[in-house]
Amino acid sequence: MQTAAALRPCPAHPLLPARPLRVSSSSAAVPARCGAVAARGLGLGARLLPVSPDRERTTGGASQRQVACGAAAGDAAKAGEESGGLLKTLQLGAAFGLWYLFNIYFNIYNKQVLKVFPYPINITLIQFTVGSAVAAFMWATGILKRPKISGAQLFAILPLAVVHTLGNLFTNMSLGKVAVSFTHTIKAMEPFFSVLLSALFLGELPTIWVVLSLLPIVGGVGLASLTEASFNWAGFWSAMASNLTFQSRNVLSKKLMVKKDKEESLDNINLFSIITVMSFFILAPVTFFTEGVKITPTFLQSAGLNVQQVLTRSLLAALCFHAYQQVSYMILAVVSPVTHSVGNCVKRVVVIVTSVLFFKTPVSPINSLGTAIALAGVFAYSQLKRIKPKPKTA
User: Fold this and answer.
1) What's the mean pLDDT when you consider all of the chain?
2) Is the pTM of this model over 0.85?
C-alpha cells in the first residue's frame, strides 16, 4: 500500500507533476526525490531511482564491491611478484653471461701472452697481484665488508691458498703448452678427482650412477687426447695436476674450514679474496727464485716483444681472471650447487667452441667426438650427483 507522501508533489517545484513511486515507509523518500529533482534542475543530470524495499540487496552490492576490490588487489600483488621474479631471472641470466664472457676473454688474452712470453709463474703472479689489488680496493671503499679474521682461521685457510696457487699455476702451464680447447677438455675430468678424493679423505662413497657417469668422462678425454694435434705430455700432465689441486682445495675446504661459534663466518667472496692475497705472498718468493721477475718493460724489450701489447693483455687477462671467479661465487650464493655445476659445464663448452673459432684450432672429427662425450659425462655427473643413497635400515 502506498503512502500519501508518495503522491505529494515536491514543494520546491509545484508545477511539476508528481509521479507515484514505490518507496519504503520511511518519510526520507520525499526529501530524496526533492534533492534529485533539484540536482536535475542544476544540470547535474541526476536520476531518481526507485528505492528497493529490500535493503539486503544494497548491502550485498557493497560486499560484492569489497570482494572485487580484494580480488583486484590480489591480482596486482600477483603481478608484482611475477614482475619481481622476472627481474631476478634476468639478473641471474646476466650474471651467467658475465661469468662466461669474462672466462672467454681470460682464456684468449692469457693464451696470447703465453704464446710469446713462456713464463707461466710470472703470468700467474701478475694475476694474483691484480686480484689482491682489487680485493684491497673493495675492502678500503666498503664495496665489500672487511672480514674480521683470526689467526686460527688464517692457519686453516693456508692449505687452501697453497693448492689454489698450484691449481692456477698448473692451468697456466698447460695453456702455454697446448691449445685452450684441449686444456679445458682435460679439465673436464675434475669430477673424477672430486669423487676419488672425497672417497679417500672424507669417506663419501658415490652412488653407482655417479660412478657410471665417470666412464664417458674418462673415455671421452682419452679419445680426445689420442687425436689432439697440439698434444704434448707437459701440457697434459699440467692440466691433470690442475684438476688434482683444485679438487684437493674443495676437499680441504670441507675438512679444515670448521667455523667456531665465537668467530665470524666468511662468505664465499671474502674467502676467495683472502685466498687470492695469500696466494700472492706464497708465489712471489717462488717467482723470484725460479723464473725471476721477467714481466718488466726492460726484459720484454730485450726479448723483442711488443711491451705495450704484452703488458696490456696480461693486465686484461688478470682482471678477467679475478672478475669471472668473483661472479662465479656470486652465482653460487643464489643457486644450488647442482645448478652451478651445470652452468660450469655449459661454460666449458662455450670456452672450447669460442677458442677453437678464435685461434682456428685444427680439430678432427674423432677429437670433437671425444670432447663431446666427455662433456656429456660431466653434465650427467652433475645431474646424478643429486641422487643420495638410501639409508640402510636395521
Assistant:
1) 79
2) no
What single letter denotes the amino acid at residue 53?
Answer: P
| Cell numbers linked to 193 | 678427482
Q: Give the angle 240-246-248 at the CA atoms, nearest 5°.
A: 100
Angle at 79 between CA 77 and CA 80, to 5 degrees: 60
Whether the CB-CB separation of 148 and 323 falls below 8 Å is answered with no
- 127/106 Cα distance (integer angstroms): 10
d(CA 27, CA 332) in angstroms, rounded, equals 74
Give the N- to C-terminal CA distance of the chain in Å, as an integer. 87
Apex CA 149: angle with CA 144 and CA 197, to 5°?
A: 95
pLDDT digits (tens, 9 = 90+) for 349-368: 999 999 999 999 988 899 99
Q: Are 270 and 144 in contact (CB under 8 A)?
A: yes
Amino acid at 316: L
Handedness of CA 267, 273, 274, 279 (dihedral sign): positive
Question: Which CA distances in Å does 351 have to 61, 118, 232, 290, 355?
Answer: 64, 22, 21, 31, 6
- Would you list the domain boundaries of the chain? 103-387
In the numeric block, the cell 678500503 is attached to 140
Taken as a whole, the chain contains a residue count of: 394
pLDDT band at 47 (very low <50, low <70, confident <90, very high): very low
Range list of H helices, 26-150 = 29-41, 56-116, 120-141
For helices 56-116 and 307-332, give the axis angle rounded to 10 degrees. Answer: 150
Q: Which three cell numbers stand for residue 219?
A: 673415455
Inter-helix orientation angle 151-177/120-141, to 10°: 140
